[in-house]
């Protein structure tokens, strides 16, 4: 967050608080946005709320319900990171509740791009006589809502590339020759690997290619963290992966993207999408995830899959671990360029997060 509390106006200070509490919904609210709401009276917070897990109450409802004396709402301001909804979904419109409770002033981080809202909530509040301010800490709210905004403005998921490379720049050792025993290897330490499981719990999708599954037999779950496991998206052009691999264990929703249109070869319980692997595959994969309401995805490789998204310029950030060990020779790590958001140490590992601008 670029804002510094000492330099913020009163409205910005409370919007900053909205963003902070909204993060509690990360990994649970999708496809709803993870909104934060704060209610203030006489420069004192009297209520707070963030979006419940999908199907539950929105942030504004939770904040209003947290106020012990509802009469205080009639002389309060409600701050919210995203425009209050104005339509009926799984819950009634939040704009209607704000009006009903008589909250006279509404401060909003940014307008909701969703076609069912798109300014209608703001319009409804103003027509009811509310004093409405829009665009408070807008840049910070856009960063917070980056998954939701990308999905509804670009019609694709927010794409996170992730890989680990050695100190000398390899993501894997040289492939073993036929007849040689394959030796297991780890580039990163256990703390970094646990962080990856935390990330998986925060995103609704995880995508890997055929070679990664065949070589590593990954589970792609969150066994080292508490949270919801992501939907697995597996690229298997020729259906080479057999049913005994972990990705087909039935514990998570799994989508296989293939060129084989033969239901007799499909594994029960797995969703299959037939694609043309010769033409703009990353864009086709984005379309699949958009149709499946997957608002963000971690792409964990291997090299061919990662590089295809880099070449197509279909990525939003790259999370790159650099371990302390060396392979001397092997498979080169991909390269990306962009502003560095994070550069930090995790024990012996270095983590760099790069944004695609």
UniProtKB/TrEMBL annotation:
Protein purpose: Converts 2,5-diamino-6-(ribosylamino)-4(3h)-pyrimidinone 5'-phosphate into 5-amino-6-(ribosylamino)-2,4(1h,3h)-pyrimidinedione 5'-phosphate.
Domain CMP/dCMP-type deaminase per the UniProt entry, residue ranges: 9-133
The protein, known as: Riboflavin biosynthesis protein RibD
Family: In the C-terminal section; belongs to the HTP reductase family.
Amino-acid positions noted as binding substrate in the UniProt annotation, renumbered to this chain: 200, 220, 223, 300
PANTHER family with a match to the protein in the record: 2,5-DIAMINO-6-RIBOSYLAMINO-4(3H)-PYRIMIDINONE 5'-PHOSPHATE REDUCTASE, DIHYDROFOLATE REDUCTASE FAMILY PROTEIN (AFU_ORTHOLOGUE AFUA_8G06820)
InterPro entries for the chain: APOBEC/CMP_deaminase_Zn-bd, CMP_dCMP_dom, Cytidine_deaminase-like, DHFR-like_dom_sf, Eubact_RibD, RibDG_C, Riboflavin_Biosynth_HTPR
Pfam families, per database record: dCMP_cyt_deam_1 (PF00383), RibD_C (PF01872)
Alphabetical keyword list: Hydrolase, Metal-binding, Multifunctional enzyme, NADP, Oxidoreductase, Riboflavin biosynthesis, Zinc
Binding locations of Zn(2+): 58, 85, 94
NCBIfam families given in the database record: eubact_ribD
Active site: 60
Cofactor notes: Binds 1 zinc ion.
Keyword NADP annotated: yes
Required co-factors: Zn(2+)
EC numbers: 3.5.4.26, 1.1.1.193
Residues that bind NADP(+): 164, 186, 212, 216, 302-308
Reaction(s) catalysed (UniProt annotation): 2,5-diamino-6-hydroxy-4-(5-phosphoribosylamino)-pyrimidine + H2O + H(+) = 5-amino-6-(5-phospho-D-ribosylamino)uracil + NH4(+); 5-amino-6-(5-phospho-D-ribitylamino)uracil + NADP(+) = 5-amino-6-(5-phospho-D-ribosylamino)uracil + NADPH + H(+)
Gene Ontology molecular function, alphabetical: 5-amino-6-(5-phosphoribosylamino)uracil reductase activity; diaminohydroxyphosphoribosylaminopyrimidine deaminase activity; zinc ion binding
Gene Ontology annotations of biological process type: riboflavin biosynthetic process
Keyword NADP: yes
Pathway: Cofactor biosynthesis; riboflavin biosynthesis; 5-amino-6-(D-ribitylamino)uracil from GTP: step 3/4; Cofactor biosynthesis; riboflavin biosynthesis; 5-amino-6-(D-ribitylamino)uracil from GTP: step 2/4
């Amino acid at each position: 967050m670029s804002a510094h509390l000492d330099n913020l106006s009163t409205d910005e200070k409370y919007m900053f608080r909205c963003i902070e509490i909204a993060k509690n919904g990360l990994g649970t609210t999708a496809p709803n946005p993870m909104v934060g709401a704060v209610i203030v009276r006489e420069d004192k917070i009297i209520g707070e709320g963030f979006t419940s897990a999908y199907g539950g109450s929105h942030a504004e409802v939770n904040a209003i319900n947290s106020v012990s004396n509802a009469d205080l709402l009639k002389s309060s301001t409600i701050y919210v990171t995203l425009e209050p909804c104005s339509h009926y979904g799984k819950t009634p419109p939040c704009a209607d509740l704000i009006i009903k409770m008589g909250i006279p002033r509404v401060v909003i981080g940014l307008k909701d791009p969703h076609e069912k809202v798109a300014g209608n909530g703001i319009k409804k509040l103003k027509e009811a006589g509310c004093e409405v301010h829009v665009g408070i800490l807008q840049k910070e709210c856009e960063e917070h809502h980056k998954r939701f905004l990308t999905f509804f403005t670009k019609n694709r998921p927010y794409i996170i590339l992730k890989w680990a490379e050695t100190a000398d720049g390899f993501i894997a050792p040289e492939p073993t020759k036929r007849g040689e025993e394959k030796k297991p290897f780890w580039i990163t330490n256990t703390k970094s690997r646990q962080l990856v499981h935390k990330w998986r719990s925060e995103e609704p999708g995880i995508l890997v290619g055929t070679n990664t599954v065949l070589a590593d037999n990954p589970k792609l779950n969150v066994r080292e963290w508490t949270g919801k496991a992501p939907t697995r998206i597996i690229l298997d052009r020729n259906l080479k992966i057999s049913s005994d691999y972990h990705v087909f264990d039935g514990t998570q929703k799994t989508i296989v993207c293939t060129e084989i249109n033969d239901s007799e070869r499909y594994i029960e319980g797995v969703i299959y999408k037939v694609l043309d692997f010769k033409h703009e595959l990353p864009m086709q994969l984005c379309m699949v995830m958009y149709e499946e309401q997957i608002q963000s995805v971690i792409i964990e490789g291997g090299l061919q899959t990662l590089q295809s998204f880099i070449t197509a310029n279909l990525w939003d950030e790259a999370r790159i671990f650099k371990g302390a060990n060396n392979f001397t020779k092997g498979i080169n790590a991909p390269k990306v360029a962009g502003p560095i958001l994070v550069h930090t140490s995790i024990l012996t590992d270095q983590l760099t997060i790069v944004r695609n601008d």
